[in-house]
Amino acid sequence: MDRKKLAFALVMCGLTLDNLSVSAGFTMTDSLEEKLHEDYATVSWVISSYSLTMGAFVILTGKLGDIVGLHVVYITGLVVMGVTGLIVALVPKAIPLIIFRAIQGIGGAALVPTSFALTASYFQGKEMASAFRYLVLSRTASFGLGTILGGAFSETSIGYKSYFYFHFAVSVACLAGLTFFVVKVPPHKVVKLRDLDYAGSIFLVAGLLLIILGFTEAGTRWDSPKVYVTIPVGVIVVVGVAIYELVIIERLKAKWPDGAFGRMAVMFPSELGTVELYIASCVSGLFVYCAYATTILSLLQFHMDDGDSPLIASLRVFPSSVGIILCGLAWRPHYTKGMDPRLVVVISTLICLGMSIWTWRFRDGEYWRYELVSLFIQGFSLSVFFQTTFLIMLQKVPMHLQANANGIFQTFGQVGISLGSAVIVSIIGQDASKLVTNVKRCFYLAFASYAAVIVMFAIDIAWDFWRGKTELKQEPKAETEV
Fold this sequence. Notes:
The chain has helices spanning 3-26, 29-36, 40-68, 70-90, 94-122, 125-154, 160-181, 198-218, 225-228, 230-255, 260-263, 270-273, 278-305, 310-317, 319-330, 341-359, 367-396, 402-428, 435-466, 477-480. It is mainly alpha-helical. It folds into two domains: 3-196 and 265-480, Growth Hormone, Chain: A; 197-264. Helix 16 runs antiparallel to helix 17. The protein is globular. GO terms for molecular function: transmembrane transporter activity.
């Protein structure tokens, strides 16, 4: 096997650890409560602490990858994931476990943006399109696989610990392989680590921590100061960093292009704003991640509260992952050759909306009618959506900004997942006697999220036609045909 292809296979395998770490937690809460002798409020932070730091650090780690070398940041993240996985399996107390899960989240933040950037660095043309399909497949399908693994490992004698031993083993295997086969990607030729916008980085991480923390706390009480104070403050801080870098720093760069400001590496590069459909893809990623998380997690919670074991409940929602996997294997970008990618996004999202409405009709004893097929079709359509949006980034974002751009995209997605999770916990937890009604209420957020994506891209298409731009935006042929 080609060295680059072998390295890519190991990178792809390591990437799955991120979504596995998130979704496995959803079906391990009972085991965590039993083994740690803690209540749900405490063990939920074992799950949330990972998402908190992962979402807060992913832009920074992406930028570091572009500066010091993608393979350096990726392998560092893999080491952190492996070491913390072993520690979490061995630690018998909740508080240190929460702390090390938070550290593990930083490792996950290092894996995600660098994986996509490494793919863009390793391959070109048809090979890149093919590799990217498999990367999206592993990234999205691992979310569903994680719920099954979490439920399955919880059934063992040592409970949740067995999952983290598995997590450690996968990390070590990938790390051992990459030690021999990694293809090094040289760091940026001009920008150095000393040129990083350290002040902006610190405030950005702090702002994102506040936003995700606020949504995490919202699952318990939306009227708490931990929610209505932290989220707005976090948004203000993040927007402030963006304005500082996009306006003030850009003016200083123009004034002193050869000085320190001229070389400064910012978290929000102005070049990304000129990349066609990049901002729209990021915003749509937030809504789609939110809708998908809401659909899957609400059904998962319903089936567990209705008497299914975590393993059986996760198997019930697994058809969505099967759809993602089959689409990843069968779909080829040239199937939509000649179509505006925005139209592909609208159609795939419209199908997701229709299937989520059909799933919303679920009831006891009618799983085969309302959930099985609709979840499969929704997963298939989601894969088309992600392949389209990720391909936009791989093709149109400059190579030296690939990890940074993907980090921003993943941050939007993480906020969407946090919002969906908060809504589910706050609604379903209100009254156990109204389980079905409350789960159906959660679906309204999924409907609204999918609809927002459809409206956003439809307006953009209509605006171009109104201005007389009747030619479809087509992807470069060499890049999309596989």
